Fold this protein.
Amino acid sequence: MSLKFSVVLLLVCLSACASNEGITPEDNLPNDRGDTDREATPPEQTVPNLPSYEPLIGSSSNTISQLRGATVTARTGNAQLRNATGRVRHNGGKLVIDDGLYKLADENGFDANGEAENEGVTLRLVNPNGQYEYASLYSTSYTVDADTYTAVGAIGIATRDEDMPTTGLASYSGDSVYAYTTQTGTGFAGVGTFSADVDFEGRQMQGYMEVRTAQNPFTRETVANPAFDRIDMDRFIISGTSFSGTDMRPSNNGTEVAITGANTTAQVEGQFYGIARTSENALQPDEIAGEALLIGDDGNIILSFIAD
């Protein structure tokens, strides 16, 4: 039961915590989010042209963009991290998002509030008009074969294969939303920061989240002394325009804590989005986003992250 409860916590936190306290344009992290803080390879003799990418919502173009992302789907006693794909015709055209379990199709795309609907199922973007141009977190709920699933995910305009750099370094900083649940159904959820360092030549990266708030998302009461204040995630492998890993290590005050108990497994799936020019005229993906799932005998953590 706690697996589905974790997603429910995260759904509530996405709609309540994140919109007010976490993922807002005004609530910037200490590091500047601009593209100029990226470390990059030395500039080319010829400045490369900046490829054209449309934003996830708000575009007046009639072009079609491919969507990629990840989602955690859960029902009672079961949770899975899945890849998501889709496409969107901008300027009010058809939207399709398929997580391998359910395919949502809206003939009119996202509305001004960042919502899409199909046969009573609504998918809601988190902060669609915020600082992230190409990617967004989202939440939804649907029924398949009489089973009701709740889902949280990340989706956006994927960086094209031909635009992925093969050299250079980059740093990204942004936001996260998480939920921790024990097997007895207790736990907490909140928002945090997220940071990642990428080595495009080595095709690897590492990241971490730090807890900013911890609370009961239903009562909004603050949880004093949460069981962890940071999660490190190392050894991501880049493949194409996506990355994945199996390393999640919660810690509290610098000491690792095994809060999910024995037989813990971890899965992280993420994607690069859009394109940007660095201060040294190199081209690199503008944003990253993804999902992480840590499951053990004693509990689980679900984490959504996004950064630029």
Remarks:
- The CA atoms of residues 3 and 287 lie 29 Å apart.
